Amino acid sequence: MTSDTVGFLDILLLISFSSLFSLGGGNGPLAIIQDRWVNSGLLEPSLFSWALALGYLSPGPKAGFLSGIGYYMYGLPGALAAIIGIILPTLVGAGAVTYWFDRLQPVIKRISLPAGFVIAGMISAAAWNLAKPIALTPIEIGAILAIAIWVGWRSPEPAFIVLGAAGVGLAGWMLA
Amino acid sequence: MTNDPAGQSVASRIEPIQNSRVSLATLSLILFKIGATSFGGLWAGTQKLERELVIKRAWLTVEDQKALMVAATLIPAPKFLAFGGMVGFRLRGWTGSIVALFSIMAPPALCVLGGAIVLNPDVLGGPMPTLTRTVGIGVIGLLFGNAIHQIRSSRVTPRQRTIGIGIGASVAASAILGAPLILSALAGLALGIWLIRPGEENES
Hints:
By secondary structure, chain A is mainly alpha-helical. Helices cover 78% and strands 0% of the residues of chain A. Chain A folds into two domains: 8-100, no CATH class; 112-175, no CATH class. In chain B, α1 (24-37) crosses α5 (79-118). Chain A: The chain crosses the membrane at residues 6-25, 37-58, 78-99, 111-128, 134-152, 159-175.
């Protein structure tokens, strides 16, 4: 634990506030946490990075890393505060949007046809932004292309790909 | 999407079941399962979501799923979480949404929490950079593969498909060049609604 000044309510409020900057897929909580807790010295950068790495290797929503941040800030109650903090605004938003979704079926019907292509564009942008800072080698680019074609045409279980990639990474480290 | 011998989408013939028939325990179990077995976020999990929610359970139609995925970007929250919350709300109202949100969030939160409690960066300091790099490459491949799957599964005419691919490429390019993703997506949707109209869909 690195902070004695941040409590349950502080974590809940900051995480809830930070989720407002997630509109459209932005990683708002990450930037806000870095700005408010890491830059101010309340959370060690190595622990922040470690929580992010754990979140990246975990299944499900990537927001899972918040439980690690909450834990480092205020122990188990902090982890709970972080989870509630991200769920509360999501609950309100999901309820509100779904309520209007039901009343806007004709509009939704018009949206659904082009939606697949827009989603494809959004997915591609997300993939590109993930790849940009990595500085990929030609072999890694080839691996990405092979996986993309495999997934696009054969629909394998995503967990196998992630576990396979982790296995390759572990083997590479052991052989190095 | 699964196709029958006649080539018609199985999912397109499934009507959503009555909401009251979905118990909170079942909802919780399925959302927990999705949370525990999906990697790479909402986009990478689209095929799994389609299998679980559309084909196996018939809780949503394919069109519902796509519309909810787009609607998830309108909520100021992580998209995967927002999608789960909306699925829960559609099936069981506010209670369903709360159950769905906690269930889908539980696996990653517990994994990270376990890692934070048991491990520290020094323990796995050696293989960690290599592991995160190779897993990252796998996830990037998954994301691009799901983009291909989205395009391939759209039931439109060849002309509409060509227009749609152009729109998708424009959305991706503008977001990559620095435009806010939500604005790029909304502009792409507006253009798509104008250019890709219902009635021309290729049913075969």
